[in-house]
Specification:
Layout (H helix, E strand, L loop, with lengths): L1 H31 L14 E7 L6 H8 L7 E8 L5 H12 L5 E6 L5 H11 L4 E5 L4 E2 L4 H10 L3 E10 L5 H24 L10 E5 H6 L10 H11 L3 E12 L5 H21 L3 H4 L2 H34 L6 H22 L13 H25 L15
Parallel strand pairs: 1-2, 1-4, 2-3, 6-8
Antiparallel strand pairs: 4-7, 5-8, 6-7
Length: 404
């Protein structure tokens, strides 16, 4: 039990330290190492913006309005209606009439709801751009979202995807503000750290990501059987020799769940998608590049940590119940909180301008540590059970909790 407890305590400390150091050097690299531009002096490439939508009549207009304000001029917009049961298709027609004079707007009407991956495939078939910017139907993009992404593509012809940075915009509830801390102090830090230390990231964020269309073709398009198309396509790109970059300058403001049950459902889906990627790419433990092997091993260790943490927690609870002794070391607890504080301070420093985060938000940090532990533990364990007990699923989606 001592070895298991040591693993539960030391793993997050070691991994957090690696990502913290990596994120610091990533930021330094971003400021001091210029990107190459093999496209300089040539005509602007066409970028196709793909937005799959299922029952999005209330959010779609604001998203397209934000697209109309982006500074990159040579774009086309492709709206995919995936079997919506509300007025999404009518809203798309209105948007086509409103913005058609500014940039081409195409509508792909999919009669039967078959999921986001299928909708992206159908939209990409009619896309004429060399690059595809894929957005969720509830996010507002920054007006300068495209130029930093294209700079990464032009820097290296083997870059197949560039992941943008999601920013939480609904902060009227405690749960929304806790997720703001997570996106700033965990998700962003991890991606920065992975990008510098390993050169790869575990996954793009499907809410705002750009692809080289040829890379998507090489990877065999999006997998309609994958429960998380963004995690799956990331590893399909790696499998076909493409690189994936992280671009925190390209931001999109998103809505996050504001009910615990919806948040757990979302995280369970993410966790199950990770299990699927591990299973489908297990051969890359041997044949993959070292960076890919490291990422897969980190995913395995993360899952083992969640399982181990559940056993250790139960052991502690039973010990307290039957003996009344509190066996948690205060020094260890202080160390975990200190690591978390450093991590969030770095995230705050990197994100205070783009994310409009305030230092007062850090007052929720003690609550966040408990929140993050509980949500991810429950999500991982339930996803693990779902993966083995119910391995098949239908490629469809439903309207998520949009918050307040």
């Amino acid at each position: 039990m001592s070895t298991l407890s040591d693993f539960v305590i030391l793993y997050p400390v070691i991994v957090s330290t690696i990502w913290i150091v990596g994120s610091i050097f990533f930021s330094i690299q971003e400021r001091r190492v210029p990107l190459n531009n093999d496209h300089q002096g040539q005509p602007a490439d066409l970028v196709s913006i793909l937005i799959p939508a299922h029952n999005e009549q209330d959010t779609l207009a604001q998203v397209v309005e934000s697209i109309s304000k982006i500074t990159y001029q040579r774009i086309e917009l492709i709206l995919m209606n995936d079997g919506s049961q509300d007025n999404t298709l009518a809203v798309m027609t209105q948007l086509q009439e409103r913005y058609g004079h500014q940039f081409p707007v195409k509508i792909v009407d999919i009669k039967v709801n078959k999921g986001k991956a299928n909708a992206l495939n159908e939209g990409a078939k009619v896309a004429q751009g060399e690059f595809l910017l894929c957005l969720d139907a509830d996010c507002y993009v920054d007006q300068n979202v495209l130029e930093p992404m294209l700079a990464r593509f032009y820097d290296d012809p083997k870059v197949g995807a560039v992941a943008g940075k999601p920013i939480v915009r609904n902060r009227t509830s405690i749960l929304g503000r806790l997720q703001l801390l997570e996106y700033v102090g965990v998700i962003d830090i991890i991606k920065r750290g992975q990008a510098f230390v390993i050169g790869h990231i575990t996954t793009v964020s499907g809410v705002v990501v750009a692809y080289r269309k040829q890379a998507i073709i090489d990877a065999g398009w999006w997998n309609i059987d994958a429960i998380t198309e963004d995690i799956d396509i990331t590893w399909r790109l790696y499998h076909h020799g493409w690189q994936v970059r992280y671009c925190p300058e390209s931001v999109a403001w998103i809505l996050v769940p504001e009910r615990i049950i919806d948040l757990i459902h979302q995280r369970r889906r993410w966790a199950r998608g990770g299990f699927e990627v591990l299973f489908r790419n297990r051969g890359m433990f041997i044949t993959g590049r070292l960076s890919e092997q490291w990422l897969l091993m980190d995913m395995v260790l993360s899952d083992l940590w969640a399982i181990s943490c559940s056993f250790v927690t139960l052991f502690y609870l039973f010990t307290i119940m039957f003996t009344g002794d509190i066996i948690m070391d205060g020094v260890i607890l202080f160390l975990l909180l200190l690591i978390s504080l450093i991590q969030f301070l770095i995230g705050y420093a990197d994100s205070r301008e783009s994310d409009f985060i305030k230092w007062q938000d850090l007052s929720l940090l003690p609550l966040y540590v408990i929140f993050y532990w509980f949500i991810n533990l429950v999500s991982c364990l339930t996803a693990l059970g779902s993966f083995f007990l119910d391995p098949s699923h239908v490629g469809s989606w439903r309207s998520p909790d949009r918050g307040l």
